Amino acid sequence: MRGAARALQKGMSARFSRLHFASPEATARFAKALAPLLVPGDVLLLDGPIGSGKTHFARALIQARLAFDGAPEEDVPSPTFTLVQAYETGKVGLWHADLYRLTHPDEVEELGLAQAFDDEICLVEWPDRLGALAPDDALTLTFEQGDEPETRNVALEAGPRWADKITAARAHADV
Ligand SMILES: Nc1ncnc2c1ncn2[C@@H]1O[C@H](COP(=O)(O)OP(=O)(O)OP(=O)(O)O)[C@@H](O)[C@H]1O
Ligand SMILES: [Mg+2]
């Protein structure tokens, strides 16, 4: 079940918005604008097909947060094979997961992800693999190809506590 559907089932009002990213730079601009606003316990579920821009978004966000917190620059490889890559900015922990190869939701516990959802800032690609373990108050971004090769449409679904962060990040990134 998607984040918004879960939120509705729990009686929370889910908010929807759609973003259009005209270029990889626009996608990165929104990620960078969101990066400093995140706090431990914030979970971003990055949905959408192969090559839709999930890692591109996560890399821009992680590198921006490392820089914002004064941490050294780091490469942010796709966690395709490691499933999880963790980064420490000195102020917060950032977890980047790619669950494409996850075979069973039990592995979510084994990877320490369930705990990280409470304690760290988490970005999760292929979040459908989480099943019922997906946090209810996550921000879900669903990426899809736009009309041109370099464009993407992204649907945002989130509970009300995300509204101010999304509004601020959109204004800052001009998307
Ligand atoms: N507007 C855009 N936003 C994001 N990426 C874009 C955009 N336009 C083109 N791209 C390109 O699309 C590719 C997206 O690849 P990326 O690895 O981020 O996909 P992914 O969704 O993580 O795929 P996977 O499911 O395999 O992990 C990159 O090469 C990126 O440069
Ligand atoms: Mg990826």
What does this entry look like structurally?
The protein has 175 residues and is of the alpha/beta class. It has one domain: P-loop containing nucleotide triphosphate hydrolases (Rossmann fold), CATH 3.40.50.300. The protein is built from six helices and seven strands; from the N terminus they run αβαβαββααβββα. The protein has helices at residues 3-9, 24-34, 54-68, 106-110, 113-119, 163-173, and strands spanning 15-21, 43-47, 84-88, 93-98, 121-125, 139-145, 152-158. It has a seven-stranded mixed sheet with strand order 1-7-6-2-5-4-3, sandwiched between helices. Strand 3 (84-88) and strand 4 form a beta hairpin. Helix 2 (24-34) packs across helix 3 (54-68) and helix 2 (24-34) packs across helix 6. It is globular, with a radius of gyration of 15 Å. The model has no long low-confidence stretch (mean pLDDT 93). Magnesium ion (MG) is lined by residues 54-55, 78, 98, 125. The site of magnesium ion has 5 residues, from helix 3.
What's the layout of helices and strands?
Elements (H helix, E strand, L loop, with lengths): L2 H7 L5 E7 L2 H11 L8 E5 L6 H15 L15 E5 L4 E6 L7 H5 L2 H7 L1 E5 L13 E7 L6 E7 L4 H11 L2
Parallel strand pairs: 2-5, 2-6, 4-5
Antiparallel strand pairs: 1-7, 3-4, 6-7
Helix pairs in contact: 2-3, 2-6
The protein binds adenosine-5'-triphosphate and magnesium ion.
The site of magnesium ion has 5 residues, from helix 3.
